[in-house]
Write a structure and sequence with these properties.
InterPro entries: 2Fe-2S-bd_N, 2Fe-2S_ferredoxin-like_sf. This protein is mostly beta strands and about 90 residues long. It has a single domain, classed as Beta-grasp domain (Ubiquitin-like (UB roll)), CATH 3.10.20. About 5% of the residues lie in helices and about 30% in strands. The protein has 1 helix and 7 strands; from the N terminus they run E-E-H-E-E-E-E-E. The strands form 2 sheets. The chain has a 5-stranded mixed beta sheet, covered by helices on one side. Strands 3-4 form a two-stranded antiparallel ribbon.
Amino acid sequence: MSADRIIHGVVRGEPITIIVDGEPLACFAGETVAAAMLAAGVDAFRSDRRGKPRGLFCNMGSCYECQVTLVASGRRVRACLTQAVDAMEVVTRG
């Protein structure tokens, strides 16, 4: 699963880069981590207890399916509610 960004009639923030599982992802200031990941074709946000990938479900912060870990703090956060910040490092495992 991936998502295309709307191109026409949209004012975006400055281009930034976040790092997801060691790979740089181009995105824009003001986007959520989930939006950046989906636009880059990354649809596995975490794994369940059996090791099966889990993706974005509600996209409004209710379900916790999109939890990722911020490398700098070690905190688990919901990607759909977390604003992407330039050079932010995120891992989908751990």
